[in-house]
Amino acid sequence: MNAPTRNEALGAFLEQDYVAGFETRLETDTVPKGLSEDVIRTISARKGEPEWLLDWRLEAYRHWLTMTPPLWAAVQFPPVDFQDIVYYSAPKSKTDGPKSLDEVDPELLRTFEKLGVPLHERARLAGVAVDAVFDSVSVATTFKKELGEHGIVFCSFSEAVKEHPALVRQYLGTVVPPGDNFYAALNSAVFSDGSFVFIPKGVKCPMELSTYFRINARDTGQFERTLIIAEEGASVSYLEGCTAPMRDENQLHAAVVELIALDDAKIKYSTVQNWYPGDKDGKGGIYNFVTKRGDCRGARSHISWTQVETGSAITWKYPSVILRGDDSVGDFHSVALTNNLQQADTGTKMIHMGRNTRSTILSKGISAGRGSNTFRGLVRVTPKAEGARNYTQCDSLLIGDRCAAHTFPTIEVRHPTAHVEHEATTSRIGEDQLFYAMQRGISAEDAVSMIVNGFCREVFKELPMEFAVEAQKLLGVSLEGSVG
Amino acid sequence: MSTIDAWVAHQRERACQLPGAALPWLARRRADAIARFADLGWPTSRLEGWRHTSLAFLDQQALAAPAFAPHPAFALATLRAAFDEGDHWLVFVDGRFAPVLSVTGMLPAGVKAGALSEALNSAPDAVEAAFGSADDSASPYALNLALCSDGAFVHLARGTALEQPLHLVFIGATGAADTHLRNLIVADANSEATVVEHHVGGGATLGTVVTRVQAAQDARITHVKLQQQDAQAIHLAQIEAEQARGAYFASHSLSFGARLARNDIRTRFAGEGCETLFNGLYHVDGRRHVDHHTLIEHARPLGTSREYYRGLVDGNARGVFAGRIIVAQDAQRTDAIQRCDNLLLSRLAEADARPELEIYADDVKCAHGATVGQIDEDALFYLRARGIDTDHARQLLTYAFAAEVIERIAHAAVRKRGRGLLLSSLPGGARMEALQ
């Protein structure tokens, strides 16, 4: 097969648009653009927060003012004007907030339906409890009652602050301190909502919990905060999905996710990130600057991150695990795809502190078009982490000769009994692989899709089934137009 | 006064006595270099490339008094005994060429090997072309340019080959003065040579060394560095090569000595079809620190690079490896492999590894791997089952792990010397030597 044919085939394969790029017209309640102590006080007041939380926010804000944006990531973008962002935008409703699904704005429900979020009866069929965050506030949480019977708390963050202040206060900021990094500090100051999950001792959560995030209003940033606590022996699987409408300007998304696993607890956190990536010329798209960290606080606890990153103009995200408890386990499974002018700098940190802690890192990066994809990781074995074990594998797949794939792992070992291994490969879709598939009557597009999906299979199998299907489709869509 | 100011004052004072002081181009480059050094200061762990090796302590602390000073003639005699009669030797004592101790023997026509200080008088234009500037240098290497007092200047004319290796011996004899050496190796098309750098002595001084290699079309240059300085010395070194079409460059770095040793080794493929081998071994114990930062820049198509580093880290020591491979958009059909493996031999030792790939081309084969671990229990059991005691079995396996690096050195006498150095640095080495 000659090269032009291959390119044409790939090119045809890549002509698909961002399907979640619609905008929902709703009345919203927003605060003016810009950031100041007054804005933070306004956000806090609107949400009726207790004073300690306002103080916490203000402290984070004051710390943020002393910090500078990090520049070490392998991504390029003009400086963000933090005074040109709307920090709070909520869909307006007649009362203070929807009490049940029936009270939710039907327009909004249609939006989620378009997105395929199984709210309502569809949720029951899918067996997924959904907390949907629209711009800044959580609009509905399904399956509350059933979860309540198990003692599980699954609600929006603002609700948790009202209903379970002691829990929030005990755990908030203990994994990602307010001054952790520039964007975490910003989030701590202005976070508007997010999800809160508490699984009490010994409870296995009977269904998958899920949050859907959507940025809708123009000029808004989304700063959600998620906190998941699994007590001794508890377990939970949590899913997160994200979309945004298509716009010419860039929008900022700076979230913080904190996971806490006590003795024998297990938390599995899966993300399918499909924020608007910008158009073919790199115009518009979401800046996804996220801090995600899990703390295996208890012995034999287990935290697992799975992510499929196909959206966002720029991704800057390192879901990490602190392996504090003895025999605790941390996993990171990732597929990151960049097409057109997308840039992703993503990876993980595994900090081994307890004895016999184990971690696995599996990262698959796909670069197409003029996309740039970076894996950046840290595996640290501290002097007390006897018998620590890490295995890391990062593979990169290149599609087209204008893309870039980088691997920047760091290994720091301070215990002689540790075993740390890192392996990485970089290659492209082989002519012979394509030829083999096409010879058997498979079109070039399908062949590429098949090869890419095969490349990512090890990660996809970690995803809950319905998410795995979505991820596979997304991958196909996101690759459109990468060559030719 | 911070030591930075002291260094600047020191340079101003010394400048007029440095070789080539009368050459305007050199004076200008030295002035730029010291300005750059003053501007940057000593690198600290805040700089990405120095995250694991901070030199901030050099800003606060005056260098300690000499601890040990070997006699140059003695050190040299031991060294020379290990090699063939016909080898060529250029010896530098405390940063100055020592003609009395040097034996260059019969050099083939077209091969020049002598002191940089002399070449600055006899062939200033050739030196200027190869000298380099400090424009992009890290601050220690800018300081090197500003203060370099001597070094070797080697020129291989088109098609010449040096059959016996050329040894450059750098002896820190009095251990009282800082040394700054600059070696320039210019290899014209189709020429070939093996250059061995020996660094011994040094006391408690600071030393910087910059070695620059220009390999023209199809030239083949092998560079071996044997660093066995005193346990108090600070050794900061850069080896930078540029390869034209089809050129081969090998860098072997065996690092056994010094309190702190930093090696920045880099090459750039400026033509198609270049090949390189980066091969390294380090053994540190006590509170010592060794750091290798390598960079292989595949700027043109069809390049092949192989990189293998191994480290033995014992005591309270720290071993650092950071290797970066850059494949430019134009560098299609690149084939690159990089590996770094570390053995941690004690509870307080630390090994850090950063194997990095930066790829902008799609038709490439690149792989890298890094490991940190300990001796394989199964292998240990196997040896013990054959009546070898645990300690000895451990030593044998450690030696075997490290010796793989040394076996990649093509030149037999140099390889033998490398083995000898490894054995003398390992506990139980004498017993293993008897087995050979």
Average pLDDT, all residues of chain B? 91
| SSE topology string of chain B | HHHHEEEHHHEEEEEEEEEEEEEEEEHHHH
Distance between the termini of chain A: 15 Å
Overall mean pLDDT of chain A: 81
Range of strand content of chain B = 35-45%
Q: Structural class of the secondary elements of chain A?
A: alpha/beta
Helix coverage percent of chain A: 25-40%
Oligomer: heterodimer
Strand order of the largest sheet of chain B: 2-1-5-7-9-11-13-15-17-19
Query: What is the rounded distance between the termini of chain B?
Result: 55 Å
Record field, number of beta strands of chain B: 19
Quick summary:
The complex is a heterodimer of chains A (484) and B (436). Chain A is an alpha/beta fold and 484 residues long. Helix content of chain A is 25%, strand content 35%.
Keywords:
heterodimer, A: 484 residues, alpha/beta, eleven-stranded mixed beta sheet, ten-stranded mixed beta sheet, 23 strands, disordered N terminus, B: alpha/beta, 2 domains, 11 helices, globular
